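Bumping with the actual sequence this time:
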Amino acid sequence: MRAAPLALLALLLVPSPRLAAAEAPAPSNAPALWPPRYANAPEELVPFRRVEPYQRYFTEPLPFYGPGRDYPDPPGLKTLRVGLLAPSPGSSDAFRGAMMREGVEMAIDEANASAKPGELPFELVVREDSPLWGSAANILVDLAFTDECLAVVGSIDSTATHVALRVALKAEIFMVNTGSCDQTVTETSIPWLLRTWPDDRQHGYRLAELVVKEQGHRRIAMLRTNDRNGRVGVKTFVDSVRRLGHPVLQEMRFLPGAKSFETQVARIKAAEPDAVVLWGEPEDAGRAAAALRKGGVTVPLYGPERLFGPAFLAAAGQAAEGMTITYPFDPTRTDEAWTGFVERFRKRYATAPEAFAAYAYDGTRILLDAIRTAGPNRFRIRDAIAAVRRYEGVTGTMVFDPTFNNLAPLRIVRVKGNTFHFEKALAGGK
């Protein structure tokens, strides 16, 4: 007797069969740059694009209807505290976390150096996430109530970000995320987070177009890490190549830290692919690339931004040659905003900044500008950040969609002579 209610529920969830244009209308108050489709998806990759649903989501900015905008400023303020939720030094994100922290520190110090007379200085409060699952919740409570921060930057680990975001909703404190690649982070309908880092959805769209439409591959295999980052990260790519008519033939997995890939390589080789997509940590993916080449798989290799850097090159060795990845922005640019940032960063830290430092710098500057505009009131700070639709940063132009997610065009990078070479922007990018 349970079949009837389930069948009725299924009917209620089916979209209206009315044919519709592929592009969803932008909000009436949206700027010209507002994406015509959710997440700026390429038209032919939109699911059910020829059917008009009863309801479209994520078409307007997330509102906040609560009180607080008229609360008085906290008494006795001597500094404007900004929290940083950072990966612990012993985690897999330790290097990325160090880069993020340096970008945040630099942004705060530069903002303090340029402060007008009478303006309170910013103060950075750093708390490190621990390996214990869920610890980010307790840390954000400390940042919000013990440390009395006005807002928080962080984190890189997507699980920690998800956990912290739930506390941010209850504590009513804004988070600026500058490193998580999880596409679901901004799909929570929690209007207390903005992300500067282009997520895995953008990489999935771009890789699908590159692999199928531009390079003409028809038989695609995937070798990915068997964890949440791998499972969630590849979803958009897998869905997109299927919509383009060439679904993944073989999707093999490996555990983080794996050293042997014999079974995965044998099954991929048996599928006779003409392209393989790698997804995971750079060292793991590098070893996987080397194993594929050793096992006789000679087809082109592709992957997302996480594979960028010396760790992948060192682990892959000669197998890295010809590897193609997508990357958030072009660090070989010569405009003053970027070169000036690189010069200042090198002078301060004696090393070149990577993307995690650059996006952390930009995200922190957005936050600091909002605090200066709104004053020490968490609710008005939220409003000021939520009003940002476009931001010109050291990473280039950022364009934020209604979920406060950066949709800036990606770049194409290829390995030649054990060096990453930046080639061109996303289709439609400048």
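The tokens above came from a reply further down the thread. The longest helix spans residues 94-113.
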